[in-house]
């Protein structure tokens, strides 16, 4: 009997040279959260991202957001403005700092933070003597947010921006790489992301001294002394040299990974855009998405569920779009500035399998299942 294998939403895709770097780490006994691959991976990323940035590789994207908040002196009682339509890891580090998130809804062109609602929220908080300490904007599913508009508002009120690029390595905004468009960028190399180190992240800083401060905090904040002296709270957030080796191998194939994901999107769009019940997110002029995940917006919750359940019966993973943070039980008491857009996306949207390792047979199998949906 022919058994079909499960198709995942986004699974790791090794390029082939990763094990050579890992073997080198073993051969040289650099089995530690420092070593030549840590430096090498940082240099690879620095070269790739451009814009004269400084990169610190860390244990996760969540750790990078946490350190970014520390570097911006966000602390107990502060408010931080955060995109509501995102994964919870964008917002959880605000709570780690004892600060309070205020959630901002999306605009329709990119599904990311609405500049209009951002400014309304800032004015409201300033009026109440609660000027926000930082803004966390997210390039969700790889689509760049409206960085120029957000930056103009952020500068006007002098509030720094943390750019959550966990899903957007390889996306560009008017020819600049995502993760380099703001005060501090963050990346993730979790197993489901466009490239992976199994788990990992990076903080992208504008200056060498900010990078050094991030590295200092990520390695237990040891002051300069022969014994262990601590005058600030430290974290164990540095990336392992073994995992950085995987990252170096993955950086050799990043362009192929972006192309493959973009081709998945084109395949779905070509074969599904004739249905009025399915909409795709278009790239505005100057925006290039890595299409980390191909998302569709259907005409109703029922259509969305029909597609999801049909796929699931054939062992194909798909998933509703992110449930907005302002609807999450953990954040239910948080202030939010909303317009219904993220709630509508959560109601009708679906993430389709989007791995760079999907074969044409996989894509055809997914498509044939979607075409079986009665509501289309
Ligand atoms: C994956 C992800 C993170 C967290 O990154 P980890 O490396 O998994 O900690 C943060 N924000 C977004 C939008 C993500 O998708």
UniProtKB/TrEMBL annotation:
Keyword Transferase among UniProt keywords: yes
Keyword list, A-Z: Aminotransferase, Pyridoxal phosphate, Transferase
Molecular function per GO: pyridoxal phosphate binding; transaminase activity
Signal peptide, first to last residue: none
Modified residues (N6-(pyridoxal phosphate)lysine): 193
GO terms classed as biological process: polysaccharide biosynthetic process
Cited InterPro entries: DegT/StrS_aminotransferase (IPR000653), PyrdxlP-dep_Trfase (IPR015424), PyrdxlP-dep_Trfase_major (IPR015421), PyrdxlP-dep_Trfase_small (IPR015422)
Top-level taxon: Bacteria
Keyword Transferase: yes
Pfam families: DegT_DnrJ_EryC1
Active-site residues from the entry: 193
Family listed: Belongs to the DegT/DnrJ/EryC1 family.
Name assigned to this protein: Aminotransferase class I/II-fold pyridoxal phosphate-dependent enzyme
Natural source organism: Flavivirga rizhaonensis
